[in-house]
Design a protein that fits this description.
mainly alpha; 3-stranded antiparallel β-sheet; globular; disordered N terminus
């Protein structure tokens, strides 16, 4: 299927119809649930309003062309706002049954980022929502909380490991994924030092150029990666004091394109490198180029939790259809519309597996569906990707320079 050039519009249309049906089925009075509330989903805590999921779903729902979904796009964001911590942090999730907020083990940094992104994006798509005005005080507290996580010379967010979407992975210190989102937030809200954030992120996450950062601590961090990294066309997944992530983080690099962290030339190199690594070979996309093996110094015992994060599984090299939606959008942004249309069809086929299961993730080598079925953000990201391929309004106004 990877070599096909004809586009099966029938399967794309069917996926759109089923994506809308899934989101309607997963809607609740408190907002969109992460997955269809079957027994397994309830037992595993997926029948809840997750910060990152609600944000991605809100954007996809706002672009769906379905009146009910458009009306309910912000519901989950409002629920999360009601449970905001006193210090400004947005919870990882809110249990819709008990109305209890959860903030994860070592802090969930990206729920607050995605919440801010979704609010600004929904208002941009429809100014009549007036979310930024209605939530002004809560937005201010959320931004203050994020600024408290920001290094005051790098202007990059700092985090502990296992505290973003890949919540059983060892990325820590300065993390590409979180800082691409932070740059996006800075541009949406016109926050200070956005240029510093972009410049320092390029020095730290791609320290392979001919020049090094002037700040001596940045030079020290870059020193460890310059001669040892092998995925040199990609941004490093994270940089810590004396170690870094060179596993090839697909989602982080795709967000770097979409959020304008990378230049256009670098963005094109990123896409080529990811394609050469085969992350989209069958279904878009595998979230790592090179899974972390158990003998790696990056391996952590918690990666065996539920036996999920073995190589080629879950965050450690599984295929995530929702990330595939962002991959399609990145191709559109770079003018690769025909390629994006082909990837959209492959994405529809991924969601079609297990009788239109919209399954959470697939094994990175066998393509076996795994994780939770009826995943809301699979449906929403597909709608977002289809909107981009169809030439809809530019979803990422920051663009690529």
């Amino acid at each position: 299927m990877a070599g096909r050039t004809d586009i099966d519009s029938k399967v794309v249309g069917e996926c759109r119809r089923r994506a809308i049906e899934l989101l309607l089925r997963n809607a609740s009075a408190e907002g969109i649930l992460a997955a269809t509330p079957r027994k397994q989903a309830v037992d595993r805590g997926y029948a809840a309003i997750f910060g990152r999921d609600a944000a991605v779903c809100g954007i996809g729902m706002a672009l769906s062309g379905h009146a009910q979904l458009e009306r309910e796009a912000a519901t989950g964001l409002l629920t999360l706002a009601e449970h905001q911590a006193a210090n400004g942090q947005i919870p990882k999730f809110v249990d819709a049954r008990s109305a209890e907020a959860d903030f994860w083990y070592v802090g969930c940094i990206d729920a607050t980022l995605w919440w801010l992104i979704a609010i600004a994006t929904l208002d941009w798509l429809d100014a009549g929502r007036r979310l930024r005005r209605r939530l002004a005080a809560r937005i201010k507290r959320a931004i203050v909380w994020l600024h408290c996580q920001e290094h005051q010379r790098f202007f990059l967010l700092q985090q502990n490991e296992a505290s973003d979407w890949a919540d059983i992975m060892p990325r820590s210190g300065f993390v590409l994924y979180s800082n691409a989102l932070w740059l996006w937030v800075k541009r949406l809200y016109r926050l200070p030092h956005a240029e510093d954030t972009q410049g320092n992120a390029n020095h730290l996450f791609h320290p392979f150029g001919t020049t090094l950062a002037e700040y001596r601590r940045a030079r020290l961090l870059a020193h460890y990666a310059r001669d040892r990294a092998h995925n040199r066309e990609l941004f490093l997944s994270f940089v810590n004091f004396a170690f870094f992530g060179d596993e090839g983080d697909t989602f982080g690099n795709v967000l770097a394109i979409l959020c304008g962290l990378s230049s256009r030339a670098q963005s094109q190199r990123i896409v080529r490198a990811l394609e050469q690594a085969g992350v989209n070979a069958t279904y878009p996309v595998r979230v790592l180029c090179d899974p972390v093996p158990e003998q790696s110094f990056l391996w952590r015992p918690y990666m065996m939790r539920h036996r999920q994060n073995l190589p080629w599984q879950y965050h450690n090299g599984g295929i995530w259809p929702f990330v595939g939606g962002f991959w399609v959008c990145a191709l559109v942004m770079l003018g690769q519309r025909e390629a994006a249309a082909r990837e959209l069809e492959k994405l529809a086929h991924a969601n079609r597996l297990a009788d239109w299961g919209f399954t959470e993730w697939l094994h990175g080598q066998t393509f076996e569906p795994a994780g939770m079925q009826g995943q809301s953000w699979n449906a929403a990201a597909f709608l977002m990707a289809q909107h981009a391929v169809a030439g809809g309004a530019e979803l990422f106004p920051s663009g690529t320079s």
